[in-house]
Design brief:
Layout: E1 3-5, H1 12-16, E2 29-32, H2 36-48, E3 53-56, E4 70-73, E5 80-83, E6 88-92, H3 97-105, H4 121-126, H5 134-137, E7 144-150, E8 156-159, H6 165-174, E9 180-187, E10 193-202, H7 206-213, E11 221-229, E12 244-252, H8 256-262, H9 264-267, E13 274-275, E14 278-281, E15 298-305, H10 310-314, E16 323-328, E17 350-357, H11 364-372, H12 392-396, H13 401-414
Parallel strand pairs: 2-4, 3-4
Antiparallel strand pairs: 1-2, 5-6, 6-9, 7-8, 7-9, 10-12, 10-13, 10-14, 11-12, 11-16, 15-17, 16-17
């Protein structure tokens, strides 16, 4: 029997609150799921009472804060099974990447995990997944083998490229619109180390050096850059305190000596506040971005760019209280996967985002998007659409037009009552 939590329970606030503190679900009832049977019970209850369903693993990528309805929390479903011979992992709905990374490393393997090991692996993957080896291997979603999902009629289905292929295609990109995924089989790769870490430069100008450098790097090199206004507080490393610094993140999935040679032009750019790039075990890959692990309130927006000329870099120079992040895409991200899925916008070369602290949307989000419009593809990346920016209009921009129309058709087939609407919403017809 699923454990249910109602608003009068002492557990209610802690259970409904995730990593993202800018907003929280406020459901009528929470189903704290421990297995697929609990998820089926939650969906059955929601369907019987005509209630919308929201799902939360770690709460990093909150799209819509559900007001009322049913919230299924999956953090207790965190099992991992590794098949070293097949180089695959089976992960449950609420498993963070950290558990997958550790389990795979015991067999000399690694997943296509992202910057933050604390993020839920399943939801990250269903939204695409631009990870630390993305330019070499593509999206995490491109390497999914099977998806276990509870559909709107509370049935448990296994979707694969051969069995329920339409549902499989739609879930990989369409995320929570078609059911509650309870498990995922993903490919693993024979990677034990990365040449990776962080270079920190004073001020903003090093972004231009990074922009020029990425023009000639191989696909084994996945990198990004962030400009961060660091507070003058004790927990910030002394060289960064009170500074606005450029943080170059390096992840090279090849020999360390090759990686060292490749980043030499960056090191030659000028004095570094900190240089933390070296050969590291994949289990320490979280130090590359060093994302926060404590819950935060923030707002994030982004643009996908065809190119990154100097003028585009300059669009964010004046944002002295906002975090600016630019990710290098291309490589395998630009190519169609062996098994088709709904992930769109593979023509983008860069993802240009800004993050502001607090729960309110700052005006610089719209201002920066407008400044970047000359180089924008017009598309969006689903996993980077949060809260106020996860509108139906922007969700639509995450897909190619024909793919979006197919997704709406499949939504009408699999969820005609729109039970799963507290997500990156794709409406039925």
């Amino acid at each position: 029997m699923a454990h249910t939590i109602t608003p009068d329970s002492d557990q209610y606030d802690s259970e409904r609150t995730g990593f993202q503190l800018s907003a929280s679900h406020r459901p009528d009832v929470i189903f704290a799921a421990e297995n697929a049977a609990d998820v089926r019970a939650a969906v059955s209850h929601a369907a019987a009472h005509d209630l919308p369903v929201a799902v939360q693993a770690t709460g990093h990528g909150l799209a819509v804060a559900g007001d009322g309805g049913v919230l299924v929390t999956t953090g207790r479903m965190n099992g991992v099974r590794i098949d070293p011979a097949a180089r695959t992992a089976w992960i449950e709905a609420g498993t963070p990447w950290s558990k997958v990374i550790e389990a795979a490393a015991a067999h000399g393997l690694a997943p296509l995990s992202g910057a933050a090991p604390a993020v839920g692996a399943l939801s990250y993957t269903l939204g695409g997944g631009i990870g630390l080896m993305a330019r070499e291997h593509g999206y995490a979603a491109d390497h999914v083998k099977a998806i276990e999902v509870v559909t709107a009629d509370a049935d448990l289905a296994l979707a694969t490229p051969d069995k329920e292929p339409d549902l499989f295609w739609a879930l990989l990109g369409g995320r929570g619109n078609f059911g509650v995924a309870t498990g995922l089989e993903i490919a693993l790769f024979p990677v034990t180390t990365l040449y990776g870490g962080a270079l920190f430069f004073d001020g903003f100008d090093a972004v231009h050096a990074w922009r020029e450098w990425v023009a000639n790097v191989p696909e084994k090199m996945t990198s990004s850059v962030a400009v961060i206004p660091f507070p003058d507080v004790p927990f910030v490393p002394e060289p960064l305190r009170g500074r606005r610094a450029t943080h170059v993140r390096i992840a090279y999935a090849g020999p360390a000596e090759e990686g060292e040679r490749l980043i030499e032009p960056l090191r030659a750019y000028g004095p570094r506040l900190m240089d933390k790039v070296e050969e590291i075990p994949y289990t320490r890959s979280g130090i590359i971005h060093n994302d926060p692990t404590d819950p935060v309130a923030s707002q994030s927006s982004h643009s996908l760019l065809r190119e990154l000329p100097p003028q585009a870099v300059e669009a964010a120079r004046s944002l002295t209280t906002t975090i600016v992040e630019i990710r290098h895409l291309g490589g395998a991200l630009s190519r169609p996967p062996a098994t088709p899925n709904a992930i769109g916008n593979r023509d983008a070369s860069f993802l240009y985002g800004i993050v502001s602290r607090g729960g309110e949307v700052a005006p610089e989000h719209a201002q920066t998007e407008a400044a970047l419009r000359p180089w924008s593809t017009g598309g969006k990346a689903l996993n980077f659409l949060f809260a106020a920016h996860a509108t139906e209009e922007d969700v639509k921009k995450a897909f190619e037009p024909t793919a979006y129309e197919r997704l709406r058709d499949l939504k009408t087939t699999y969820d005609p009552a729109d039970l799963f609407r507290h997500t990156h919403h794709i409406p039925p017809r």
